[in-house]
Write a structure and sequence with these properties.
Number of strands: 0
Strand content: under 5%
Distance between the termini: 17 Å
Largest sheet: none
Structural class: mainly alpha
């Protein structure tokens, strides 16, 4: 029996996909007024302050029982791999790879989660149906973005940039599985702690790599606050709730939505043309989700489930 996936979990991953899909648009605007590592620092830092303020109202509760050293190390790993590591690696790697490669590498999170969850998370066993579903969904993302995502950019640092993007994906996968294995914990406290840990890593790194904090105009500051509050603080809290409730495998379905929403928002707000492959890609992605989550969907819509 897999994790108990509720209708609200489906709603949360839908909201996460839509939120993170719109992040690329806002982030591209913010990068006009600030450097990549300081953008990451502002996102994580402001989000950490916001979540810590809410957490303080709950008395800074975190673990429900006294944590072991292993639990604390797991928490540190989650904080680094879910915020600091991917934010910095993606900001750096996207400078040297084809524009679509980062989107494809993020979609690979689901495929990376599968073997990790199989060995490390109870009731998340890998089977052929799950693997085929995730593979079909991944292929749908590739169709949407286009196979030119794998073409060489000609940059001498392209290989390093690709490794950075894939390592960021691995970080998200590792943090999702590790987060699921934490003992009982306050979700707001966990979301705040991951951001605080990330801040402690990213801000010093930004100082070393890019120098002192740059001056920003009011528009850039507003965009940074938007990025911090919605796709960072708010979305991170939703991510914690989904992983703790439905598991890392279910959470990774978000990765297939993000490129779709990015294309839709680009069309609506930037007048970018919708690719002809959108319908085919959507059909593949939805088919992959249905196949990989068939047991969950069947339980959720069964007469027994509706009566309960």
């Amino acid at each position: 029996m897999g994790p108990n996936v509720r209708p609200v979990d489906w709603l949360m991953i839908f909201l996460l996909g839509m939120t993170w899909g719109g992040t690329f648009l806002v982030q591209s605007l913010a990068l006009r007024g600030i450097s990549p590592f300081w953008l990451a620092s502002a996102r994580i830092g402001f989000a950490a302050l916001f979540l810590a303020g809410i957490w303080s109202l709950r008395g800074f509760r975190l673990f429900e029982v006294r944590p072991s050293l292993r639990d604390i190390l797991k928490l540190l790993l989650v904080g680094i791999c879910s915020t600091a590591l991917p934010f910095m690696l993606l900001s750096w790697g996207q400078q040297y790879v084809a524009s679509g490669f980062a989107g494809v590498s993020m979609a690979a999170v689901g495929l990376l989660v599968l073997p990790l969850a199989h060995f490390l998370v109870p009731h998340e066993r890998l089977n052929l149906r799950k693997f085929l579903g995730f593979l079909i969904g991944f292929f749908g993302v590739v169709v949407l973005i286009g196979f030119q995502a794998f073409e060489s950019s000609g940059n001498p640092l392209e290989t390093a940039g690709r490794i950075a993007c894939l390592t960021a994906s691995a970080g998200y996968a590792i943090s999702s599985v590790t987060m699921r294995n934490l003992p009982k914990v306050d979700p707001i406290g966990l979301a705040a702690m991951t951001m605080l840990i990330g801040t402690c890593v990213v801000v010093p790194t930004a100082f070393v790599v890019e120098g002192p904090v740059p001056k920003t105009d009011a528009t850039t500051l507003g965009l940074l606050l938007l990025l911090a509050l919605v796709p960072t603080a708010g979305a991170n809290l939703l991510r914690v709730l989904v992983i703790r409730s439905a598991g890392p495998g279910f959470m990774s379905l978000t990765a297939y939505q993000v490129p779709v929403w990015a294309v839709i928002f680009g069309s609506v707000f930037l007048n970018e043309p919708l690719p002809a492959s959108l319908v085919i890609a959507l059909a593949l992605i939805l088919s992959g989700v249905a196949i990989s989550q068939w047991g969950t969907l069947r339980r959720m819509f069964s007469p027994t489930s509706r009566r309960s």
